[in-house]
Every structure is written in structure tokens, then in C-alpha cells.
Amino acid sequence: MFSPPPDRYFPRAPLSRRTAAFAIDLATIWLFCAIAGRSLFLLAFLLAWFTARIFIVLKNKGQSLGRYAFDLRVVDQTGRTPLFSDLLKREAVLGLASMLALIGFNALNPANAWSLLLILPLGVDCGWAFAETNWRQAFHDQVAGTLMIQTRRGYSLDLKLKQIVAQLQRRMRQ
């Protein structure tokens, strides 16, 4: 179980931002896999997932493309970027669930409604964060001893989108 040091404050990341950042990462990886084709799906997914979610994170202070877009980063118990072994544990659990979900979505048609069951592992893994009330850790975070926190380093995509929507609403009223 994750227990951060009592003298250190970590600004918890809201689940909505975590979900949006994960969706950006998964969509980017899915696009890469779609270009590679069905015959190379598994190899392309593994290559893209571990590049985007481990190697880029190690070089970019705990941020992937989606996490950078939403001002998030993954840290270990000391507040630093996790080690390669911790990221490998974390992303192996999340990557397997994500790969099954993508296979389920790709196989979805009226004759294969069972493919929706392949989405369940991802739902259970990420749903763990809703049940855990202290630090809102998903199962893959608890396995690796990591935590998603907010940071000032990033693009703040959600805040910029809110500003654009507010401007559009003001213009529509005038």
C-alpha cells in the first residue's frame, strides 16, 4: 500500500484529468497501431506503449503526451520520477488492460457483442481509483507504488478549452 511521507504534500490529480490524459495517450497509440495494420497490432502496440509510457516518461520528468497536456505527472513515494522497474510494473498492468480494451473495440460488431467483455479489465483497474478514497490510486498505481499528481509544467489543455467555451458562450449571448 502506498504511504507518502507525512511531511510532504502531493497535490492529487482529479480523476477527470487523469482519464482525459489517459485517453490522449491511448488514442495516440491506437493511431500508431492502426497505421501498422492488423497483422502487426500486438508488436506495434507493445512498441508504442512502452515508448510512450515508459521511455518518454523517464526522459520527460514523469510526463507522457497526455499527462503533459493536462499538467500531470507520475511520481514515486519520494516525489521523484519512478525508476524504470516501477514504471515497467505499472505500465505492464495498465498496458495489458488497455490492449485488451483496444482488441475489444476493434472486434466490436453485432455478431461479436462478447468483445465488450474485454473492456472489463481496464474498467476494474481504473475503477479501483474511485473506490480508494485516500490517494485515489488505481490498481496499477498500487502495484508499482506510484501516484499521479498535478504539476505546473504542462499545457493546461482542459483550462484552455474551458476558456474557449466560455468565450463562445459570451459571444452567443451578445
TrEMBL record:
Parts of the chain that traverse the membrane: 20-50
Segments forming domain RDD: 13-145
Chief place where the protein resides: membrane
Record Pfam families: RDD
Location(s), subcellular: Membrane
Keywords: Membrane, Transmembrane, Transmembrane helix
Coiled coil start-end: none
Membrane topology of this protein: Multi-pass membrane protein
Protein name per the record: RDD domain-containing protein
InterPro entries given in the database record: RDD
Annotated Gene Ontology cellular component terms: membrane
Organism from which the protein derives: Roseofilum reptotaenium AO1-A
